[in-house]
Specification:
Blueprint: E1 10-11, E2 16-17, E3 20-21, E4 38-50, E5 70-74, E6 77-79, E7 82-84, E8 88-98, E9 104-110, E10 121-123, E11 130-137, E12 143-148, E13 154-164, H1 175-181, H2 185-191, H3 195-201, H4 205-209, E14 212-220, E15 225-226, E16 232-234, E17 238-241, E18 247-253, E19 264-272, E20 281-282, E21 284-288, E22 308-309, E23 317-324, E24 333-340, E25 351-364
Antiparallel strand pairs: 1-4, 2-3, 4-13, 5-12, 6-7, 8-11, 8-13, 9-10, 9-12, 14-25, 15-18, 16-17, 17-25, 18-24, 19-23, 19-25, 20-22, 21-24
């Protein structure tokens, strides 16, 4: 696999020839707009083909190119020891003639173009390896052709880079670049505030971050809204049976200093009303009353509290904590339903006494 390293230099595609330049692309002397120039991408050199027999052979051909024969091969994709990307429109390659039997020349050109009357590489019979570097445009399907004029000759082709289309003027962005990275003036005018509007009507993020703190609201448990029953009743707090059918609700107007879209934490402070068996576990669940009304009540979207393992005592106090994610409590009123979970350890028929409830939230330290 070759290593790509993009060059910022713009290079014209041309077919190098002995004594001049020829091919299907303009020469360096032609007048070419910046939108027509291809971009050269150098790579780690790789061998595309070697027509010599094993162990030197690379690619699909292992016989010399004969007199008057044209050898055609694919360049794009994985061929020989190269892997040239599909966007390549041309390649820079070193081409070497080996074992030529007669004086001859080689012409390299895109397969879908007429064979030009030009030579890319020349040699004489019995000469040692004869290299030449050339640039050649690829056919639309990615192929090139090599024509040998006389005798038999083995040819080696090593690619050192390729060319990509560059079909726009560098002084401008393409439409795709603009659409992906910029807003139009009408979008900005219609969807954004001016600096003066922001300066007079909004706080900066740093100003808000430096002007907030954690605040608390506390409520006696008996102030919660309940339907008194054998499962849940007011008695110096909320006396809660080990049953999941009873629920209490906390209603409170959203504090005016609450920072919208920030989490709110609910805490319940409780103890066992009678001595429970060792290992008895207690857990609560809660949620905003209008949130996912059809869902199973317990453990809705991770709104279950921590689990407490009770000591064999009715004088030990415990805290259940539940945090509601941001965006759930932006309404003017908070209605929070609280429910007891089924006991995790069975056999205990006593109750839990909830003494108080607390809400902690992020609030502004000053308003104005």
């Amino acid at each position: 696999m070759h290593v790509r390293a993009r060059s910022a230099t713009h290079v014209l595609l041309a077919l190098a020839a002995i004594g001049g330049l020829a091919g299907s692309v303009p020469s360096a002397q032609a007048v070419v707009g910046s939108g027509s120039r291809a971009i050269y991408v150098p790579i780690t050199p790789c061998r595309l083909f070697d027509t010599r027999p094993a162990p030197d052979n690379v690619g699909g051909r292992s016989t010399p190119i004969g007199s008057g024969e044209t050898f055609t091969l694919q360049v794009r994709g994985a061929n020989g020891n190269c892997d040239i990307p599909a966007e390549a429109v041309g390649v820079a390659m070193n081409t070497t003639a080996v074992n030529g039997t007669l004086n001859s020349y080689l012409t390299v050109y895109p397969t879908d173009a007429p064979q030009p009357l030009a030579s890319s590489l020349n040699w004489v019979a019995g000469q040692g390896p004869s290299p030449n570097q050339l640039n050649v445009t690829l056919a639309a399907d990615g192929r090139i052709s090599l024509f040998n004029n006389a005798g038999n000759v083995d040819v080696i082709g090593d690619i050192v880079g390729y060319y990509e289309d560059h079909n726009f003027d560098d002084r401008y962005y393409t439409k795709d670049q603009i659409d992906a990275g910029f807003y139009s003036k009408s979008q900005i005018d219609g969807g954004y505030y001016t600096k003066s509007q922001i300066d007079t009507g909004y706080y900066t993020k740093s100003a808000i971050d430096n002007d907030v703190t954690t605040k608390f609201l506390s409520f006696p448990a008996e102030s919660l809204n309940v339907q008194p029953s054998a499962l849940l009743l007011r008695a110096g707090g909320l006396l809660w049976d080990y049953d999941e059918t009873a629920a209490a609700e906390l209603y409170v107007h959203r504090p005016s200093d609450y920072v919208l879209n920030t989490p709110v934490t609910l805490r319940l402070f409780y103890r066992a009303s009678t001595v429970p068996p060792a290992g008895t576990k207690v857990q609560f669940a809660a949620r905003p009353r209008d949130f996912n009304a059809g869902d199973t009540f317990v453990d809705v979207l991770t709104t279950a509290s921590n689990t407490a393992t009770l000591a064999a005592s009715n004088t030990t106090f415990y805290e259940a904590t539940i945090t509601f994610p941001a965006l759930e409590l932006n309404d003017d009123w908070w209605g929070i339903a609280i429910q007891r979970s089924q006991p995790i350890t069975s056999g205990f028929t006593g109750k839990v006494l909830v003494l108080s409830v607390e809400l902690s939230y992020t609030g502004y330290t000053s308003q104005g």
